Model the fold of this input.
Amino acid sequence: MTARPVLHADADAFFASVALRSRPELAAVPVAVVAHVYIASANYPARARGVRSGSLAQDALRQCPELILIDVPRAEVEDVGDALFDIFHTSATAVEPGSIEEAFLDVGATDWAGAIDAGHALRRRVARELGIPISVGVGSTKLMAKLASRRAKPDGLSVIDSGEEAGLRTTLPITDVWGIGATTLQRLHRIGVLRLGDVDGIPRNELQHVCGTAMARRLWRIREGTDDAVVRPVEQRSSLTAEGSTAGYARPDKTPTELAEACVERLCKRAERAGLAGTGITLTLRPETGGKAIVLKRTLVGATTGRATWLAVAADLLAGESVPRLAGMRVTLTGLLPLDRVQHTLF
Done:
């Protein structure tokens, strides 16, 4: 292996792992975290019993009657997610986020032994400081690193070396190529592309017609071994989001104002910690009866992290709307700017 290695770090069963930090006695039994009556995350004992994220909680209970359901500890999840990325940023020279709990990392290692050592150190640090397990994959490209981290789960580290990589670039099922949507997969299957090597037998113009020029080029690069290996850091977050729920297994008597206040408090705390201030706020209200969400927005002249300001804005937005009984609410602080770029006169 001669290429500069890439790491993919992914927290295992993130929501469930966070929820179980304070309940270690449940680690060996089936547990799932619920959001809006859906399974948000299941621990590995629950997964072994067929419980899957996205399924209805009542269906999961039928599948696994001894399943223990826990509401999403939203504030704790957000705090741990922020802390996880703090560790990523201090452990790597570049971090490319994938979600709240996963990222590609360039740890500055010029050889594979150094990258593997960095991966082990990262896993130990996250376990020690945050009390959650993460799995790390090491590969020559982002695809190979992500495949390796999938294989490392739960709570492990895996490496895809040059010999294995060469084989995977021919034999890997097309369904395992990260980033291909369900419709495109169906179209590829219809023309006989079931594994990466099958791409070679498809005329280039036909492949472009079936899956689009960008995806066709990506598949060709994967076959050639020239696919994306650059970790592209996000220079600045543009938004922060917090959620609250009244449905399912959460407290059912929270008012819209209480939900908004709890979310705003968490958002302002996280923005201050990250050294950011927001210029806008968006409230997304999910009616209990289902149907279309209600979206309320407001943009200010200047940027601020002031709790009083954002609480007042949220209250004003809710007061101007006929708010139905809610299942939940998502609050997003938008237009984020670094505090050192905010003029004091704007506060």
